[in-house]
Amino acid sequence: MSPASITTSVAETLRSPLRAASHWLWLAGPLLLIVAIPVADAFLPPDIHLAHLLVVAVAVTAVAFGPRLTALVGTLAVIALVAAGTVRHTLTTESVVVEIAALVAVCAFLVFFTYLRGRRDRELVHVRSVSDATQRVVLRPLPERAGPISFASEYHSAEADTGIGGDLYAAARIPGSTRVLIGDVRGKGLASISDTAIVLGAFRAAAHRPVPLPELVAYMEDAVGWGMAEFSGLEDDAAERFVTAAVLDIPDDEPVVHVVSCGHPPPLLLHHVNGAATALSVPEPSPPLGLGVAVDPTYAAATFPFEHGDRLLLYTDGVSEARDEQGVFYPLAERVAAWADQPPVPLVESLTADLRAYVGGRLQDDMAVIVIQRDGTPSEQSSSEAA
């Protein structure tokens, strides 16, 4: 568990008792009204009557509690109203009878309202749990380490209360190497989840095969093209569905990274010596996945230096094309260069916080960021652990 996760967990643990205490303190107000209003009513002149305000106690209870407690407070309010009428010797008058009937009706309505609200809340919790389970299955979290590589990542969907959308990432280990995928499905939010699942399924099915990187991407193209055509409805145009992607292969014992780009924004290399952010632009990029049927693409891997201590920043266009209030694109390379000396997790946290501040709070597109750091070869790690 990351330090940020531990801090969040501790904070939530400390806040839970405070929330529970404030929740029950909310009930003190309605109970105080139920006691105070009849008492005050008994000392007021006959032409001033406050007992009808008891409905406020029931309404306040309904805001924070469920049907049982609302019904209990409502019953107490009716009893208090009857007691106030008895003390003033007005219980059988038409005015008090109407007040009692009205209070009973309002209490019944509020109890029914809280019942419906509670049922809806349970349904939302169930839907959210299904959504979280779907996210864990479709978009699995990256490992903290894979061979000599360490990871940090961040993901945000453009749609509120949704943990998955059109951006995707995955990693896989093969003997002597780590493979990484980052991609961006055309579209955003819930509408793109099916294509996200197709691409991730294709990568996971093939990434563990000890084949060259271009062959891996060619297999993914076939699988993605078939999957998108298979699951396209009559109203969909399969030719308009595609996925930009970058697929990387990072050897354990060579200070390099191999990259195949399928129309995806180039990774940024943060060199451990000078902290410069260099875009790894592939000389021969391929078209996005899903368009292979139309253009019959070829795939070529470009090789770049990736030394011990260097970091790679992979991102989607939800980062590079984010705009501020004046419509200016987010200066990703400049901002990242300022944090080049930070480890992966703080670097991702700094980038995410700065990006949100730049756009004014809420991102308008799905966003995925991965930071990959080469920590050393497996033999170096074994030596350091032994020491």
Topology:
Elements: H1 3-43, H2 54-64, H3 67-87, H4 94-138, E1 145-146, E2 149-156, E3 167-174, E4 177-185, H5 193-206, H6 213-230, E5 243-251, E6 256-262, E7 268-270, E8 277-279, H7 292-295, E9 302-305, E10 311-315, H8 317-320, H9 332-338, H10 344-359, E11 367-374, H11 378-386
Helix pairs in contact: 1-2, 1-3, 2-3, 2-4, 3-4, 5-6
Any key phrases for this structure?
387 residues; alpha+beta; Phosphatase 2c, domain 1; six-stranded antiparallel beta sheet; five-stranded antiparallel beta sheet; 11 helices; disordered N terminus; Bact_Sigma-Reg
What does this molecule look like?
It is a single chain. It contains eleven helices and eleven strands. It is elongated, with a radius of gyration of 31 Å. It has 387 residues and is α+β, with helices and mostly antiparallel strands. 49% of the residues lie in helices and 17% in strands.
